[in-house]
Amino acid sequence: MPSIWKLRLSMVASLAIIFTLSTLVIAVILSFLQVGLIYIGVSVIAFNLLQWLVSPYVIDAIYRVREIPKDENPKLHEMVENLSEKSGIKKPKLMLAHIPIPNAFAYGSPIAGNSVAVTEGLLKTLNEGEVEAVIGHELGHLKHRDVQVMMLVSLLPALFYYIGYSIMVSSMYTRGRREEGSGVALLGMGLVAFSMFLTYVCVSFLSRVREYYADRHSATIVENGAQKLSLGLAKIVHATKNMRKARKEVQHLNAFKALFIADPDRAEAESVTLSVMASSSDQRLVQEILSQKLTFIDRINEIFSTHPHVVKRIRALQELS
Q1: Which residues belong to the active site?
Q2: Which of 8, 68, 178, 229 is deepest in the core (most CB within 10 A)?
Q3: Beta-strand relationship, 113-119 and 65-67
């Protein structure tokens, strides 16, 4: 795993690139066009802020999430309470998502508070120590305020989209100097499209760095956390790959998949190397993963993913063991 300073430097650098690019693009567009960019910007930001405030309720509805009473699973509550204390944060609400696929996620907003949710599939697939490591990872997201950070940077691709849409509509109704107006509109739309692509890549990179950061947090606060999380990630990916029917039935997982500890859509590709290890012992499973080499296609796909490849994550965790 990259050192803590390399992780921090990567996050700062990616944020700097995202905001510098955004400022440059908006400045160039303003110099060419007279569209209501301020109105568009304010509207997009307001809409996304409202979406952030109410998103926990949307997530609860989509994933059929309910709060777990303390008397229903006292061990799990005690685990979250102890790890929250070690993390230096207030204990979040403990939630259960009625999803057969093993996974977990952290979410929240100022009006809904913070929550950590585990799926039914996770509790059935992992043992107690591995569940503890997964929860440690999710608490790392809350401690690092990843929900707020990713919400902020995700505003930019949305803003660029609406700017591009506004330019297109404006060009359709341009009167006089039609050829000149069309040329400027095409230039503006091309710049916006290119900026959307670059910001998407940068936002995805930032998300992957923060996953490493949360993994490190789990390894720090959970006893033997690096090994437990390594096993947990391997089991999650392998189990998800074998649940093709369940994955098809819950395609709406895509709506908030960036929240999850592992991307269910990539389970098929990432678990190719794990399929031959199903009967191996836990330790053998980790050793086999560490021996795998990522292909060129794996590396290209990772550029557009919100999560690092599972093989890279487990290798990074082993460096902390």
Answers
A1: 138
A2: 229
A3: unpaired
